[in-house]
Amino acid sequence: MSIFAGFDVGSLTTKAVIIKNKKIGGSAIIKSGPKPVESANKVLEKLINETGINKNDIKYSIGTGYGREKITFINDAISEISCHGKGAQWVLPSARTIIDIGGQDCKVIKLDKNGTLIKFITNDKCASGTGRFLDVMAKVMNIDVSELGKISEKSTKPITFSSMCTVWAQADVIKFINSRRPAEDICAGINSAMANRLSMLTNSIKVEKDICMTGGVAKNKGVVNALGKILGCRIKRIKKIDPQLMGALGAALFAQESI
Ligand code: ADP
Fold this sequence. Notes:
There is one protein chain. By secondary structure, the chain is α/β, with parallel strands linked by helices. The chain is built from eight helices and nine strands. The mean pLDDT is 95. The strands form two sheets. It has a five-stranded mixed sheet with strand order 3-2-1-4-5. The chain has a four-stranded mixed sheet with strand order 8-7-6-9, with helices on both faces. Helix 3 runs parallel beside helix 5, helix 3 runs antiparallel to helix 6 and helix 6 (183-203) packs across helix 7 (221-231). It has two domains: 1-92 and 244-259, 2-Layer Sandwich (Nucleotidyltransferase, domain 5), CATH 3.30.420; 94-237, Nucleotidyltransferase, domain 5 (2-Layer Sandwich), CATH 3.30.420.40. It binds adenosine-5'-diphosphate.
């Protein structure tokens, strides 16, 4: 059996994907704990339980994500930028720009037609423009972050923020809740603010079509659609796999190529 695995230890979630006979053969996601080594061990255990594979069945494995150097059982480690690019290009060969938004950073990655990385840019200095911004706002709204996209669909008059700073934006949300603005308008305003912040990063790299989004925030349709409007083109949706798994998928694909 040829099984290759990728493990992505992110700041908020830890992901694993296996490639079995050249196809996606299973995956697992858990919340990251404070110690990357423990998160990696736990996701491996979940992967084994859910797919029924044996640890020894894995021919080669690669780690990625901020905690990749701490994983004890992998054969090699590769940066998230390369892994997200690799995964996205495999799922959507026409992808030239990949916008990866995770819990604590945002990356814009440009590929050429062969999938080779030509440029990238990151924001890991400020919470606005990262999943953390959405998590904080969802908490203030007393909803789950996964509901932000759906609730915002009904909005007719999205709120606007006085500042993009996460602390001040949080105060704005509290103010709008207290002045009884509809939840859909507040959620739409949060998604738009996030998209505006992302567009500052994308504008500095000159995005090229096709554009796709990866990372957990790609599951928020409100942010994806708002960013598409600002960029003036549709952001392609990834259907073959959960976009949050893209880094782990890329790592598994690199593992497959290593043999
Ligand atoms: P990391 O790799 O840095 O751990 P992820 O790629 O897992 O981060 O993304 C985490 C972010 O994704 C969270 O901060 C949250 O905003 C967003 N997210 C996670 N799940 C969902 C969901 N079901 N719907 C919308 N957004 C989500």
